[in-house]
Q: What sequence folds into this?
């Protein structure tokens, strides 16, 4: 049974409110092979920003905090309203995932399925841990690079039986890692927009 929770309606903070970037893409460059090798080793990070889920008949927005550690797997992901009210909290340890929503806690071994069953939202959380860095999650993921900077413009992936397209912009140098701060993620009628205010590596 799906619980279409209240944050689908009440999360009012807009992704467009994020301040403009301060380092244009044409001022930085990196060898594509070296970049992928470097970022494959970036296994601990956290981000703060905004996320929007856009579908033909509805749109929901939230503030986003995501803390990730690969080995052993630990992560926390929180979505909050513009008033700071936490409406969705995820915590993972190895293969056990807990979601707190509307004051109730649910557990499961498949995070993406758990999110969908509880909220109706499609969030490719496993693949996003790589896609947000602009590197492949699956070996057959393909990347299109900017001809001048060699930084990713887009990534295409056949993930979980669906074709995903991720486009990148607004790159910044974050402690030596060249990371995008603006993402558009599309799969059929679903568009997910992520704007990152702060990367911590």
A:
């Amino acid at each position: 049974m799906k619980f279409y929770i209240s944050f689908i309606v009440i999360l009012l903070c807009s992704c467009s409110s994020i301040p403009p970037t301060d380092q244009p893409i044409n001022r930085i460059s990196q060898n594509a092979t070296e970049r992928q090798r470097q970022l494959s080793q970036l296994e601990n990070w956290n981000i703060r920003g905004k996320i929007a889920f856009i579908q033909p008949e509805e749109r929901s927005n939230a503030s986003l905090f995501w803390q990730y550690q690969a080995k052993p797997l630990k992560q926390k992901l929180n979505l909050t309203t513009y008033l700071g009210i936490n409406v969705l909290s995820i915590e993972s340890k190895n293969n056990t995932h807990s979601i707190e929503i509307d004051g109730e806690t649910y557990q499961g071994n498949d995070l993406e399925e758990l999110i969908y069953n509880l909220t109706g939202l499609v969030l490719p959380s496993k693949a996003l841990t790589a896609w947000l860095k602009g590197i492949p999650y699956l070996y057959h993921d393909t990347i299109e690079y900017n001809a001048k900077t060699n930084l990713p413009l887009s990534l295409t992936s056949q993930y979980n039986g669906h074709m995903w397209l991720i486009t990148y912009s607004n790159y910044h140098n974050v402690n030596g890692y060249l990371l995008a701060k603006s993402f558009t993620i599309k799969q059929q009628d679903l568009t997910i927009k992520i704007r990152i205010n702060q990367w911590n590596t």
